[in-house]
Write a structure and sequence with these properties.
Elements lengths: L5 H13 L2 H8 L3 H15 L4 E2 L5 E2 L1 H24 L8 E7 L1 H6 L1 H11 L2 E7 L5 H6 L5 E4 L8 E15 L1 H7 L6 H4 L4 E3 L6 H10 L8 E3 L3 H9 L5 E4 H9 L4 E2 L6 E10 L4 H17 L3
Helix pairs in contact: 1-2, 1-3, 1-4, 2-3, 6-13
Length: 298
């Protein structure tokens, strides 16, 4: 086998990250035609397409494998540079992580506070539903992912952090207005709920399981902000599922009511990373897992 030319994979990495040949060229400080040529050379080397030339641009399955490998090579290079030049290494370490909105809005940043203060880290956080974060790791777009899926894949490892209990909440006024006769299939058809986006079906699945209603049978806002879920619930304009660590203060002071105390939705959270973990990457993982276990239920 001929040696791999890593500048070709670097070009693929730049194109996938920027979703543009022009931006990739600017990032690499070469021409657009040079980027295109490197992608073609890489595809010739592996005898397969590595890039889906659609909108947006994305890596093929083989391209994703190459990107995961390239990310680990960069990790090793950073570690080697620190060992060879311990007094000269001042380079910023970019760390890409896929995280769900609930965790990001509450405990995730505090979990990283110590390492962010100690090391020159540049965080790149990609926010999406906890069912989809692991997909970004599989594609090689992130180094780690916080997910509710236990299964991992070749080259990666997984650590269980703990459970998140989601509680169906609303204000007492909202309950009096919409659920005067109780939380029933009939009353839910008029009460507005909240979903994160079209990919996050947590609310829809919960209502379908307990009340047999499908999305479209009742009003449901779409709001891509975990903080806004709380704001809408507190404003009395919607009811919604909130993680226990977000809902607890309001439940304790009576601002919000637990609508289904016998039926909390529980999800176990897992931390997925590459098997090959070194230096500051390993410290990030340790910090997230250890802190997360103090916040989430075991």
């Amino acid at each position: 086998m001929k040696p791999i030319d890593y500048k070709l994979i670097h070009a693929l990495d730049a194109v996938v990250k920027t979703k543009s040949f022009d931006k990739a060229a600017s990032l690499l400080n070469i021409t657009q035609s040079a980027v295109s040529q490197r992608i073609k050379q890489l595809e010739s080397f592996v005898a397969q397409p590595v890039l889906v030339r659609g909108s947006p641009l994305s890596a093929t399955i083989l391209g994703q494998t190459l990107l995961r490998h390239f990310a680990q090579v960069k990790l090793l290079e950073n570690e080697l540079a620190d060992q060879l030049f311990p007094n000269e290494s001042t380079s910023i370490v970019p760390i890409s992580i896929a995280v769900n909105a609930d965790s990001l809005a509450n405990w995730f940043i505090p979990s990283l506070a110590v390492v962010l203060k100690k090391y020159p880290i540049e965080l790149h956080l990609q926010v999406c539903d906890e069912l989809r974060t692991k997909e970004l790791l599989r594609k090689g777009e992130v180094y780690a992912a916080l997910s509710c899926q236990a299964e991992t894949f070749t080259g990666c490892k997984v650590q269980e952090i703990g459970k998140v209990d989601y509680i169906l909440c609303a204000t007492p006024d909202f309950v009096r207005h919409y659920f005067k006769q109780g939380l029933t299939q009939a009353s839910l058809q008029h009460a507005p709920g909240v979903e994160f986006d079209q990919h996050d079906t947590m609310h829809c699945d919960y209502i379908a399981k307990h009340f047999g209603l499908r999305l479209g049978d009742y009003p449901c806002h779409v709001v891509r902000s975990s903080e806004a879920f709380v704001t809408m619930a507190l404003a009395g304009v919607a009811y919604c599922l909130l993680p226990h660590f977000q809902a607890q203060p309001y439940l304790q002071n009576g601002t919000l009511v637990d609508l289904m105390p016998a039926h909390h939705l529980s999800r176990t959270m897992y931390w997925h990373t590459w098997v090959l973990e070194r230096g500051v990457y390993k410290m990030v993982s340790q910090s997230v897992v250890e802190y997360g276990r103090t916040i989430l239920h075991s």
